Structure formats: C-alpha cells, structure tokens
Amino acid sequence: MTLVKGISEMKQLSLQDEVNRRKTFAIISHPDAGKTTMTERLLLFGGAIREAGTVKGKKSGKFATSDWMEIEKQRGISVTSSVMQFDYLGHRINILDTPGHQDFSEDTYRTLMAVDSAVMMIDSAKGIEEQTIKLFKVCRMRGIPIFTFINKLDRVGKPPLELIAELEEVLGIDAYPMNWPIGMGKELLGIYDRYYKRIELFRGEGDEQYLPLNEDGEVAEDHVIKQSSLYDQALEEALLLEEAGNAYNEEKIANGTLTPVFFGSALTNFGIKTFLETFLSFAPSPQPRNSNLGKIDPAADVFSGFVFKIQANMNPAHRDRIAFVRICSGTFERGMNVTLTRMNKQIKLAQSTQFLADDRSTVQAAVSGDIIGLYDTGTYQIGDTITSGKDKLEYEELPQFTPELFMKVTAKNVMKQKHFYKGIHQLVQEGAIQLFKTYRMEDYIIGAVGQLQFEVFQYRMKQEYHTDVMMESIGSKIARWIEDGKADESLSSARSLLVKDRFDRPLFLFENDFALRWFQDKHPDISLISMLG
Ligand code: G4P
Question: How far is the CA of 267 from the centre of ligand 1 (A)?
C-alpha cells in the first residue's frame, strides 16, 4: 500500500495482471444501515487501518484538518475517505464512498458511474429504504453486479424470507441467498452457508467457527446446535429456498439481474470475512468501456480516464478543486502529458493525489480501475475524458440525473449580475448544480438531488464569485423531459411548469405526483421521460 511497495509491485506484474487484480466498487445503502461500520471492517481486513472508528470523521473529528472548505468542516464530510484503497489476498481494492444523509448529491450518483460493482447494505430491521432504491436504480441502469449484505443480524429484524421477498418485489431483482440466518438478535447462533456448505457459528473461534455440512446438508457430528429449534427452522427454510427459490446463476450475477445475498453483522464482525472473500472472487475487475472509438480495453497501453466528480475548495486559500478521475486504460504516471479531449488541450498531470483512509498520499502510478484526484483550477468538467493517446477519445457521456429539489435563484445585489451569471454558468458546467430557465421570463431555477448541493452552490457563489444569492424554494417538484423535444408553452402552468435545461431541452416541473398523473391522462400523446441516459 505504501508508495515504494506500490511501485515495486507494478514492475513485477504486467499491466494485464494489475488490471485483473483491481476490484473497484461502492457500498450503497440508506443512512444508518451500517456502511461506515462495514467499510471499517473491510479496511481492517486489508490492514489499511488499525482500529475501528478511524473512518468515522463525523463524531471523532479526526478529519477536521485545516484545509477543508468550511462547509465540510461544519458537517464533518470526509474528503479523504472519498476513495479508499487497500490490498487483500492479492486483490487491490478501491472502495468509492457514496455520501448519504444531507451530503447526498449528484456526485453520489456519479460515483456509481465509476465503479465495476456495488455492495448493497440493508438493515435487517428496516428492509429496503428510500436512498437504497435510488442508488440501486443507477446500478441497475449500468447493469453492474450488485451484492447484497443484510446487516445487523445481532438484532431482531424482519424474518429473512420476508426480507428476500421485499428485495425482489421492491427492487425487481432476483435474489439468491448465499447463506441463511440461524436465529437472530440475542438468539443468533450462526449462518447456514449454502455456498460453502458449512455452518458459520456466531460465537465460534478458530476451527470451531465452521461446521462442515454432509451430503444431506446437515452438520455431521452430534453438535449441540442440532438441539436447537432455530437450526431446524433454518434447515427447513434453506430447503424451501432450494426447491422454490431462484437457481444459482453466475451469468445473471455478472449482468446484475440476480443478487447474491449475504447475512451478517458488521458491528460484531460476523459474516464479513465470508462476504468479502466471496465478493472478491465474483466481483469483476475493470471491463472494457464504451467510447466514441468503440470499447477501450482496460489493459491497453494508452492511458485514459474520465472525470466523474469534482470536489471544490478543499483549500479556500487557493480555491483548489479536485477532479476525480476513474482510470479506464493504461498506466497513470505523475507528470505525464495528456490531452483533455473536449478542449483539445494538453495538460501535464503534475499535481495529483490519492485518498486512503485518513492519510493523503501522492500517487505515483495507478492503472485501470484506480481513482486519481487531479488538482484543478477550473479546467475540468464532469464527464471529461483525458488520454495520453493521439486519437480524440471520448467516453460515453454521464447521464443527467433527475433533480428532485428546485430553487428559483437571483442575485441579492443587482449590481453583481455579471458575477452572478458567470458564477452560475461555471458551476453548472462543472456539474455542481443543474440549471433550468422558464420560457418567457427566463427565470433561473436550479435543481439538485440533495440539499447539500444548494449549500455548496451558495457558499461557492459567495467565496469564488463574490455574489450573495437568494434562493426561493419552488416546492417539491417532479422533473420529466419531453421525449420528442417539442415544447408547447400553452401547456405550462403553476402545476406543470415548462422549463428548458441548459441544452435547451424542454421539460416539465410537476408540482407533485398527482399533477404528473393528471397531465399524463390529459396528454397521452406526450411522452415524458425521467432520466436522460
Ligand atoms: P452508515 O454509515 O450506513 O450511516 O451507518 P453506520 O456504520 O454509521 O452505522 C449506523 C449505526 O448502526 C451505528 O450505531 C452502528 O454502530 C450501528 N451498526 C452497524 N452495524 C451494526 C450491526 O451489525 N449490528 C448492530 N447492532 N448495530 C450496527 P450508532 O449508535 O448510530 O453509532 P455509533 O455511536 O455506534 O457510532
């Protein structure tokens, strides 16, 4: 993990080998499901941290170092944990953070465009929650494998069969339980492991931890666990799954239509090792990625990557931004020259950084699947491709995510209009916020997927463009683009406000679900779409 070790390893392994050992993923979940606890467990396995509680900047304040933007300090958002890299069993693992709570923003979605698989964490007592659904949809759209971990088995939760049914019904994905709880809460005895054909005991240690199953799927010896009715129940349910559940299918796991489900408890470190090792054996390494030049092989010599997130003002004194780049081919080396395709601009990548737990170290070499942070003074935009090759390579555009919060925005001081327009347009281009305009009055409406985006917008307008902005909520709205791009202004009303996005594509902002349905009933000929892929 150290730099020196990183470089010597790079020399020994071919680029293909290096790519093959990469596993780049995100953990998606609703706040409080246990994502931080799980991340810490994984980092502990990888030896990247030595104690639990290191990642959680929120309470310990370990990340409150001086060069963060104020808003981050106040909220305790961890920048350094944006990407965590560590090695485990020969794999090089990159975990990309998907901030939740009020920190939810478009960047959370965009991060999912930069991963090769996702781990979906579910609180066993709560089941499928709102934010999980939103993030799941993005993973589904990409067709990446999704691995489910049902957490907090040490507490009484919903019955496992109910959780599986909920997963399939709410998310519309087939599930294959890899293991099955034997009891839960205070009565948790262990998990019945269908995949490894063993029982993993909750309180077991060393060799005592695993009990192999015989051909009949039972523990062979006369183990005390056999006396428990919970064992009988788990066995019965496992049999039911065998007969009536989904068949195990690796192809479906790979294309994201079947999710392997693991049970466990991150807090008590139960089932995590089993999960991690199985996940690593299934999770894909970086795959060829679509571009204007066709699919690009991750082991190709030419370096390339795309910007999926821009984090601003980490150092207010220097107005720094960091552009997060997912490497899609070749090897990155510090100081290399690349072309930013959009501007046909040559850039020397002299200042780069990598994030690892609470330690920020400078990247020397990284390959496909890795994430690098490039210091940015306003050059990059979300979705930009950079490449060391001569060809004008451009990776597929990132989708525009549907905002759910909208504000009408104006400059407080009319004398500052020029700064206001400059700032807003730059921030929109950078991908910090989405901009819409009404047709007649050309009112500015900004849209976001999370409240934090508005706060960052307001803060940056003041800090960087010296403009106080006034924001006025226009209520919770549902955005739907008009598929054929034809705008009929006579259909605009307070309940279905017709606006245009920054590419002049028309869309309606509906007041609520009711207004949307009413409109659809009245105008069945107008096809409306929610997310622009
Ligand atoms: P998040 O990042 O998804 O928001 O969740 P986080 O890991 O912070 O976990 C949320 C709460 O759930 C924490 O408790 C954490 O200790 C607890 N938790 C996580 N995994 C398990 C588990 O397997 N079993 C049980 N019983 N609890 C679990 P907290 O009291 O809110 O925070 P803290 O003060 O303990 O840090």
Answer: 7
User: In terms of domains, do 262 and 322 share one?
Assistant: no
Q: Examine the domain organization and report whether 179 and 95 are in the same domain.
A: yes
* Mean of pLDDT values over 417-444: 91
313 is in an annotated binding site: no
| Same domain flag for 213 and 312 | no
* Same-domain pairing of 345 and 473: no
Q: What is the CATH number of the domain that holds 362?
A: 3.40.50.300
36 is in an annotated binding site: yes
Residues 489 and 362 in one domain: no
Angle at 363 between CA 359 and CA 368, to 5 degrees: 115
| Whether 315 and 234 share a structural domain | no
Same domain, 330 and 445: no
Q: How much distance in Å is there from the Cα of 75 to the middle of ligand 1?
A: 18
Q: Which two tokens stand for residue 54?
A: 């290191």
C-alpha triplet 242, 244, 248: angle, nearest 5°: 50
Residue 35 Cα to ligand 1 midpoint, Å, equals 8
Q: Is 322 within the bounds of a domain?
A: yes
Mean pLDDT of 200-214: 83
Query: pLDDT grade, residue 94 (50/70/90)?
Result: very high
- For residue 523, tell me if it sits in a domain: yes
Ligand 1 centre and the CA of 158: distance in Å?
A: 17
Chain mean position to CA 324: 13
First to last CA, the chain: 36
- Structural contact between residues 497 and 449, judged by C-beta atoms closer than 8 angstroms: no
pLDDT band of 189, cuts 50, 70, 90: very high
For residues 379 and 406, membership in a common domain is answered with no
Dist. CA 34 → ligand 1 center (Å): 5
| pLDDT for the residue 8 | 45
Which residue's CA is the nearest one to ligand 1's atom 30? 32
**20 domain residue, yes or no:** no
Domain total of the chain: 3
Q: Is it the case that residue 328 has pLDDT exceeding 60?
A: yes
Q: How confident is the model at residue 429 (pLDDT cuts 50, 70, 90)?
A: confident
Nearest ligand 1 atom to alpha carbon 101: 4
Nearest CA residue ID for atom 16, ligand 1: 267
2-27 pLDDT tens trace: 444 444 445 567 999 999 999 999 99
pLDDT for residue 361 is more than 70: no
User: Looking at ligand 1, which atom is closest to the CA of residue 31?
Assistant: 4
Which of 359, 387, 415 is the C-terminal boundary of a domain?
Answer: 387
Find the domain containing 50 and state its range.
26-282
Known binding residue 56? Answer is no
Residue among 203, 173, 186, 202 at smallest CA distance from 263: 202
Helices (H), 175-330: 229-244, 250-254, 272-282
Give the pocket of ligand 1 (CB within 6 Å): 29, 31-37, 151-152, 154-155, 265-268
Residue to probe by mutation, ligand 1, list 32, 156, 272, most atoms within 8 Å of CB:
32
Q: Are 331 and 365 in contact (CB under 8 A)?
A: yes
